[in-house]
Amino acid sequence: MRASSSSGGSKIIDLMHSHKQSLGPFFSFEFFPPKTEAGTENLYLRMERMTSLQPIFVDITWGAGGSTKELTMAIAEYTQTYFGVEALMHLTCTNLSVDEIKIILKAARDSGIQNILALRGDPPKGAVSWEPAPNGLANAIDLVRLIRQEHGDYFGIAVAAFPEGHPSSSPRGSPGSPGTGSWAESTIASDIVHLKGKVDAGADFILTQFFYDPSVFLDFVARCREADITCPILPGMMPIQSFSSFEKMTKFCRTRVPQRVWAELEPIREDDEAVKAYGIKLCVEMCQTLSAAGVPGFHFYTLNLEKSVLLILEELGVTQNMSARRALPWRGSRSSKRGGNNGEGISPRVNGSEDVRPINWANRPKSYIKRTVTWDEFPNGRWGDGRSPAFGELSDSHFFRPTEGSKEDRLAMWGEAPVTPQDVYEVFAKYVEGRIPILPWCESRPQAETRIISDPLAAINRAGFLTINSQPAVNAEASDHTVFGWGGPGGRVYQKAYVEFFAPPDLLKLIMEVIGMHPSLTFNAVDSSGNQHSSGPRGVTALTWGVFPSKEILQPTVFDSETFLVWSQEAFQLWTDAWASLYDDETESSALLYDIHDTYYLVAIIDNEYIDSTLYQFMLDLSVLANKRSAEGGKSDETDSGAIGFDE
Ligand SMILES: Cc1cc2nc3c(=O)[nH]c(=O)nc-3n(C[C@H](O)[C@H](O)[C@H](O)COP(=O)(O)OP(=O)(O)OC[C@H]3O[C@@H](n4cnc5c(N)ncnc54)[C@H](O)[C@@H]3O)c2cc1C
Question: How far apart are CA 313 and CA 494, in angstroms?
Answer without folding.
Answer: 29
